[in-house]
Amino acid sequence: MLLDAVRKYDIDLAESFMIGDRAKDVEAGRRAGCRTIFIEQDYQESRPEPPADFTTRSLLDASQWILTAAKEIAP
What we know:
Blueprint: H1 2-9, E1 17-20, H2 23-32, E2 35-39, E3 54-56, H3 59-73
Parallel strand pairs: 1-2, 2-3
């Protein structure tokens, strides 16, 4: 699904962010070459290993981190 979106919308994965609340979401983003964000939800399952680039409990915090990180990779 992620790779379909890349082709359809011409997405640059190296400049993209993958946000998820499961370890498999972070792993998918990592494998795709994205920066990763883990939204902690206290699920009774393993956390991403290795950890995401950023971990938080809030989508607002995640969006603020993205804005800061995007400034670092902007031309």
